[in-house]
Design a protein that fits this description.
Elements (H helix, E strand, L loop, with lengths): L17 H8 L11 E6 L5 H16 L4 E6 L2 H18 L3 E5 L4 E6 L2 E9 L16 E5 L6 H10 L6 E6 L7 H5 L9 E6 L9 H10 L2 H7 L17 H4 L11 E7 L5 E10 L2 E11 H4 L5 H14 L9 E3 L4 H9 L4 E3 L4 H13 L3 E3 L4 H7 L6 H4 L12 H14 L8
Parallel strand pairs: 1-7, 1-8, 2-5, 2-6, 6-7, 9-12, 11-14, 12-13
Antiparallel strand pairs: 3-4, 4-5, 9-10, 10-11
Helix pairs in contact: 1-2, 2-3, 10-11, 12-15
Length: 426
Amino acid sequence: MASKPKFNVSFDFKPFSIKQMQVLSWWMSSAYRDKETIIADGSVRAGKTVVMSLGYVIWSMAEFNGHNFGMAGKTIGSLRRNVIRPLVSMLSASGYSVKDNRSENRLDITKGNKTNFYFLFGGKDESSQDLVQGITTAGFFFDEVVLMPQSFVNQATARASDTGAKFWFNGNPEGPYHWFKQEWIDNLAKHHAIRIHFMMKDNPSLSVGTRERYERMYSGVFYQRYILGQWSVSEGVIYDNFDQDTMVVDLPDNTSFDQDWVSADYGTQNATVFKRWSRYKGVWYNTDEYYYSGRDTSKQKTDSQFREDLEDFYDRNQLDRKHVKMILDPAAASFKAELRQHEFRVVPAKNDVLNGIRAQMSAMNEGKIKWSSKAVNTFNEINSYIWDKKAADKGEDKPVKEHDHAMDADRYFVYTVLSTRTKIGW
């Protein structure tokens, strides 16, 4: 590999690891100059995004002048937050001039007598492919590429038609049947690509304590993907980290809680669940549970009957409906209207299934949530709540829609109240 690029010391650059140096300089190596693509994948917090975005700009500014380039994240907001903000700081400290044209989502980057133009895109869904039509680029950078639809990536790569164009892909692993794994990682020769696989140890700026904290956060398939950096299939029991000996705790009846919430999963024929969550010394305890299945009883309740049951649930737990908020699936519109007519404070649940499951597993591993022995139906479901194998075979991560009513109520609480971001950042 070529020598280490020199940077202005006014920015606090940490020493680069061997793999980070490979990302920064691969295009200067005689062994890789003919390669058209670099893929950096692996564990979370491995320092991929920083060096990939910096390397992308260093390469493009060295090789081109007056050309257009693309940079994409799942959304413009996530791209600006996770990539552009630190990138601009690094470039400014390294002698580059950066002009941010927010109205056009374009960065004009200048160094010496060279200026190139970097257009920012969000690739969140199938319609995103329309955003890149019409532009001609000399390269494209994709952050969190596994979160983007294949149609967007295909359209974006098709726009990079200038001579010498290269693609820079960055992301964390998903399932082994994910389209990006099968199309790009499994076909490096076809795409004239090199792949650099990162682990947390490849990020010198990460302390041992921080690495150990991330290792504690994950288990099961998420540990395999985000800690070991493996493209692992989601299979078996979802909450395989549940430990009844440490996660089921009955506190004394006179315990003084400093905050309460109620979470609910609402069903017509399916079960309706209410869960009380109470905080004591920084830990949230599921201290009571209501569970009613119209299918099991062959008698479906109305919205008003469920509201009456909820009133009884609040009363037996000595909760004030005007102050203790209730988290409810946004799809339960009629029940929400019924509750608000009777002065319940209803909060719409953040209903992102996969990120919610991930957040709940982390909360369990870190001891942030526990259950009391009253959560009988929760315990019945938790060992039967499994990944959908047929979906996994298609490259999707989805739970089987069975034994999931208490599971949904728990997930709504964790992801709405405990998760301060809609996606754990890495």
